[in-house]
Amino acid sequence: MKIPLMKVGVLSCLTFSLFNGQAYAESEWANACSSQGQMQPDKNPSYGQINCLLTKAAIAAEIPPEVVKAVATQENGDWRQFDAAGKPIKSSDGGIGLMQLTNKSGYDQKKLENDIVYNIEAGVEVLSGMYARKDLPKIKGAGRRVIENWYFPVMAYNGTKPVNSPLYQENGKRNTRAYQEEVFAELEKQSYLSSTKLASYPFSTKDFEYDRGSTANITFKKPEYTLTGQTHDSVYWFKAGDKVATTASVKIRERASTSSGHATVPKDSKLIITGDFVYEESAANKFVWFPVQTENKKIKGYISSAYISNKPSTPVVDTNAPVISGATNAAVPYNSSFDAKSNVKAKDDKDGDVTSAIRVEGKVDTKKVGTYNLTYTVADKARNVAKVIRKVSVYDKVKPVISGAGSKTIRLNASFDPKSNVSAKDNADGSLTSKLKVSGTVNTKKKGSYTLKYTVTDSSKNTATVSRKITIDSTKPVISGATNKTIAYNSAFNPKSGVTAKDNLDGNVTNKIKTTGTVNTKKKGSYTLTYTVADKSQNKAVTKRIITVK
Q: Transglycosylase SLT domain: from which residue to which, for each copy (predicted)?
């Protein structure tokens, strides 16, 4: 248990008065537990004696013993001050002894370690001081003996840090791992044997202000709560002559023990307290036993404090609406699958899981970009209705695709339309060809290379850009087969035989080859032939060839 050091002095001042003006009143109540056995140095007292010490210290400070015992269990599950070797128990974060007090300036550290009575009193004193804090909320009209009114002081015993917020700010869900939630769950389990549910606070995320990434304390915006459920007074102040009622069908034991004989009485049976309570000796149980008798005095014996109340068990009017979780605003990709009920749940404090009763109005069309409103409603058996409006945005982050804008070579003086055969298509908007924008120019009357930039933007502002290179043909045709050659004297010779020409754009231009020069096969010697061919872009290729006549 960690409490900021700055609070310790204040706590001491606030709570010393709870022990009749003395810092520790061992003589007034701790000695009353001597009947449970004598305490030995460096040894844990008997279970019954620790039960007595916790109970007496709580009553002296006017704190429900149910609360103190649950805190002690949360801090130290088996209620021990010393380990098997007789050494004081210390946690890894410095918590000391039974009540796991940490960083307690103003307290005698050695006594916290070695004196279990001092340790208990200090823990009770700190808890009582938390109740006195003005910044912590309370239940309207409730006093110190109302168990539910200790919810926030129990939180503060561990620290009013974001980790102990009753709700998660991001989704409004109950933080069942908060320290005080675990203590109150333990309290229901121990002191009520899970037969009774304590009243719930109607929390809202607006009630708390904190930064989960900060070490700063929670700021409480709502100072007072009104609980619609029935609250529970501690039963430890019952005295002889008080009338109580059973909260369940329960066994009245012959002796103060779960192993003794019994008579069973139904729920709401009227009983009369006939004396002071006695302590349970078994470590398995945290309650006490009250001696009781029925109103007709036919049944007498002992009843567990877990099953009695001074309030009738009349049905509590349910005015709490269920809580819908998981219906937070969402964004989903275009053309994706979307289930409006996926991960959406509803829970009611009385009916439990009511997810199957959720109704959804509205529809999300993932094939159309936009924002859609869904309304979730659910009602419990008491006809309390919860409603949540959820915004679902269908978004598109896919760029359009530009096609046909590949690099290209064209002839000189040819006509050229930069948008011809160029198209744009978007996954959501369809054809965007009409929205294509082209920057850059091409001069088809001048050979060279030109760069064009194509841009198009869809309705979701996704932009596609393509650069295109347009080349005005400057490539000459290629003449093949016009190699040097030796031929026989007086043989036949055709200068174009085996000679071809091919152009990158015009293809086969062999028929356009022009030859200059002659070969006289009747006269030995060397002859030069010149081959010339031009394409439509006026690119000219020239090759010379030597023919030797032997």
A: 56-164
Residue entry with tokens 């919860």: 386
Amino acid at the residue 221: K
Strands (E) located in 295-445: 300-304, 308-309, 323-325, 330-333, 345-348, 352-353, 359-361, 370-379, 385-395, 401-403, 408-410, 423-426, 430-431, 437-439
- Nearest alpha-carbon partner for 253 in 298, 190, 300, 192: 300
* Residues 437-458: tens digit of each pLDDT: 999 999 999 999 999 999 999 9
Q: Can you read off the two tokens belonging to residue 494?
A: 């055709």
Quick one: what percent of the chain has pLDDT higher than 90? Answer: 79
Burial label for 234, CB within 10 Å (0-12, 13-18, 19+), is: buried
Cα angle for residues 110, 111, 113 (degrees, 5° grid): 65
443: exposed, middle or buried (Cβ count in 10 Å: 0-12, 13-18, 19+): exposed
Q: What are the tens digits of pLDDT across the range 480-518?
A: 999 999 999 999 999 999 999 999 999 999 999 999 999
Taken in order 312, 315, 317, 320, the sign of the CA dihedral is positive
In the chain, CATH 1.10.530 covers: 5-225
- Give CA–CA dist 354/324, Å, rounded: 9
Residue 90, CA distances (Å) to 1, 41, 87 in order: 11, 17, 9
**Domain 478-549, classified CATH 2.60.40.10, yes or no:** yes
CB atoms within 10 A of CB 401: 14
